Amino acid sequence: MDLPTIDTIAVPRTRAEIDTSGAGVAFLAGGTWLFSEPQDDLRKLVDLTGLGWPPITVTDDGLELAATATIEQLVSAQVPGTWKAQPLFRECASALLASFKIWHSATVGGNLCLSLPAGAMITLCAALDGSALVWRSDGSQYRVPVLDFVTGAGRNVLLPGEVLRSVTLPRVALRSRTAFRKVALAPLGRSGAVLVGRVDAGGEFALTVTAATDRPYVLRFPTLPAADELRRAISSGIPGRAWYDDAHGSPDWRAAVTQTLAQQIREELV
Ligand SMILES: Cc1cc2nc3c(=O)[nH]c(=O)nc-3n(C[C@H](O)[C@H](O)[C@H](O)COP(=O)(O)OP(=O)(O)OC[C@H]3O[C@@H](n4cnc5c(N)ncnc54)[C@H](O)[C@@H]3O)c2cc1C
């Protein structure tokens, strides 16, 4: 939709050219959310795509995803064959309500920064122990685990003027075996729960719960837990107030389906 209050679209080519001074400034990535509803408070968009960040880079540490990498680029990334977690890229992309056409514009960073419970790029990056690199407006930068980047429904750690630069997924996580489950109230509905289980080479198990909760939760175990232990860990590890409540599912339902999907994941990874 048109955004009639916008009078400036800046396209910086370098970090030094990013200017977020003044009121009503927002970063623009794929624009799939920004242009999907009125943004009456906004006056200026700072288009991050002009910075020309390489979208997907295999590094010594693992995989670096530029914030501006599109979901399509992520899904079609060429990565080492030993990275058994790669199917998770497509599974998480498919958990978005968005069609494959949106995948060509929507970015990984935009999904994280929107911080919706059903943000499946959050699921992916939290499940694989992603580390977010954030640029401060004073020229400095810091890292924060994606698990801690999202702090609630539509909320994250970013202060005004801060930009998410990239997310690094470590090799050890990319080599893990994973299992994925998603449920929604309707076949094409927004996700009510999206869970990922991960077994590392050393046998450690991590269960990531998203969409059912207002922010991601990761429960970690030294080995694959027994069914009862997993059930208890979910009940005690996720506070009652965290179960998300909206048109796409009630808190009770979300807590119940999380238990069911977690057991399915456990059985798949045994
Ligand atoms: C049909 C449809 C279905 C959708 N389904 C889902 C869904 O199931 N789950 C879901 O989570 N979303 C969904 N969305 C919303 C949205 O498309 C996605 O979250 C998408 O990944 C957002 O990415 P974007 O690049 O388009 O972000 P934009 O729209 O460009 O930006 C989103 C927000 O993030 C900020 N931002 C973007 N990049 C950065 C950055 N690097 N640093 C700081 N701030 C930044 C922007 O200022 C803006 O506030 C859907 C959208 C559509 C149109």
Which features does this protein show?
single chain, alpha+beta, 3 domains, 5-stranded antiparallel sheet, 4-stranded antiparallel sheet, 14 strands, globular, binds flavin-adenine dinucleotide
Structure description:
This protein has helices at residues 71-75, 87-95, 100-103, 108-114, 120-127, 146-149, 171-174, 227-237, 251-269, and strands at residues 8-10, 25-28, 44-47, 56-58, 62-66, 131-135, 141-145, 150-152, 155-156, 163-170, 177-184, 191-199, 205-210, 217-221. The chain is α+β, with helices and mostly antiparallel strands and 270 residues long. Helices cover 26% and strands 26% of the residues. 41% of the residues are buried. The protein binds flavin-adenine dinucleotide (FAD). Flavin-adenine dinucleotide binds at residues 26-34, 36, 48, 67, 96-98, 102, 105-107, 109-111, 113-114, 116, 118-119, 158, 163-164, 190.
